[in-house]
Specification:
about 425 residues; alpha+beta; Rossmann fold; ten-stranded antiparallel sheet; six-stranded mixed sheet; Tfc7/tau55
Length: about 425
């Protein structure tokens, strides 16, 4: 028999991903060898029950893990359910970049077996070390070369030592999971898309891929021969359908920071701050002290804009990342210059304020009145304010100035193509 099915999963949600802790020290004493958060442990249980629910002829017969603690934690519940041992292999270990302050080396099996309940039963005492990541760190190219070297040696070792095994499951890290998949599919670059649609390998926390061998010989992908002259096909990409919260913490090689590192966490927090902490696949709003469903309290920023009431052209106001705004009729507005260019101070501007445009019910202040908004669909933070049709040419300028606030109260305020319905709100802003 030959190996014909390979599952590759990423470890679960790490404790250092939590926004407010707790941050337990590495159980192994190895730098950066952090354990899973309790949320990650729950994911490991969900992964185990998902695999165990598959027909027996689809379940893995051999379990392989990176020797880092979080990966063993992730595969351990499955080992207990299937009553199988875990084989540690350095070839599927973590990817650490060159010039990193420290390149962690995994703990020895004898220590790891003591750290897990019944570890001597479920963790093999010998570690496979045919392929070892560069101890000085790796580049995108060198991790690809590591995985291209790994597959032939690994599969040959399995088929010689376990001739009855056809199905394997590996739990590893995001970068290694991607590089292993790309190598198995015959690619030689981790940044290549899988197809002309730009598809990439998804690698959320506890996500799983599935590859099958079609038994075809001498099949090539471009100019590169597939592993052991076998044609491998990916039939599951980053599956998280079995996880309660779906895909979280996706990482790929386009991310400049190492997967799961503190640097990556800072980048994700910056991205979420800019997007108003909207929930999505990269959510890090998990707090072990508050519960997984609690959300952060965000601070609203008020931006004051003076709208000239004498202009007949629609004014388009776009919220910028730095808090400044610009109007589309060549009238420039910013928080340091309340008067638009070319508009005199005596033009009797109307005060316009908004807050919480990323929320379901933003507050809008026009003149002296405050309104609560209701979005049909929030797709951005671009406002288009159009004049009331009752404001016609030939009306007395002074009369228009006096009635400006009333007119503005009836204006339509739109976000791109979606309408914001305003209801008067009496609480002062």
């Amino acid at each position: 028999m030959v190996v014909n099915t390979i599952y590759i999963a990423r470890h679960g949600y790490r404790s250092n991903w939590l926004p407010n802790g707790p941050y337990p020290p590495p159980p192994t004493g190895v730098d950066s060898d952090v354990p899973l958060a309790s949320h990650g442990e729950n994911q490991a249980q969900e992964l185990a029950h998902y695999i165990h629910s598959l027909p027996e002829e689809e379940q893995p017969q051999l379990l392989i893990s990176s020797p880092f603690y979080r990966c063993i934690q992730t595969i351990y519940p499955l080992a207990q359910l299937l009553d199988k041992t875990i084989q540690l292999d350095t070839g599927v270990g973590e990817y650490y970049k060159e010039k990193r302050y420290c390149i962690p080396q995994p703990a020895k099996p004898e220590l790891l077996r003591k750290l897990f309940l019944h570890g001597e039963k479920y963790i093999e005492k010998d570690m496979w070390c045919e392929v070892i990541p560069n101890k000085l760190g790796e580049t995108d190219d060198s991790i690809m070369q590591r995985c291209l070297k790994f597959w032939p040696q690994f599969i040959n070792k399995v088929e010689r030592g376990f001739p009855a095994v056809e199905r394997i499951m590996i739990v590893t890290h995001a970068a290694t999971k991607i590089a292993l998949g790309m190598a198995l599919l015959g690619f030689d670059n981790v940044l290549q898309p899988l197809d002309n649609k730009g598809t990439i390998i998804r690698s959320g926390a506890c996500s799983i891929d599935k590859y099958i061998c079609t038994e075809e010989q001498n099949i090539t992908n471009g100019n590169k021969l597939n592993v052991l002259n076998r044609h491998w096909v990916m039939i599951m990409n980053g599956n998280t359908e079995f996880l309660t919260k779906g895909e979280e913490m996706h990482w790929d090689f386009r991310t400049k920071a190492e997967a799961g590192s503190d640097e990556e966490m800072k980048l994700k927090k910056q991205q979420q701050n800019m997007s108003g902490f909207n929930k999505g696949s990269d959510s890090i709003n998990i707090d072990e002290n508050k519960g997984a469903d609690d959300e952060y309290i965000t601070e609203d920023v008020f931006v004051t804009i003076q709208l000239p009431v004498t202009s007949k052209n629609p004014t388009k106001i776009t919220k910028k990342d730095n808090g400044n705004t610009k109007s589309s009729n060549s009238t420039s507005l910013d928080k340091d210059n309340n008067n638009p260019n070319g508009i005199e101070d005596d033009d009797d501007p109307t005060i316009f304020q908004y807050s919480g445009l990323d929320s379901e019910s933003p507050l809008i202040k026009i003149g002296d009145k405050i309104y609560r908004g209701e979005w049909n669909k929030l797709v951005g933070t671009e406002l288009v304010i159009t004049r009331n049709e009752s404001e016609k040419e030939g009306e007395d300028t002074q009369k228009k100035s006096k009635e400006a606030n009333n007119d503005l109260e009836e204006h339509n305020i739109k976000i791109v193509k979606d309408v914001l319905k305003l209801t008067e709100y009496n609480t002062p802003m």
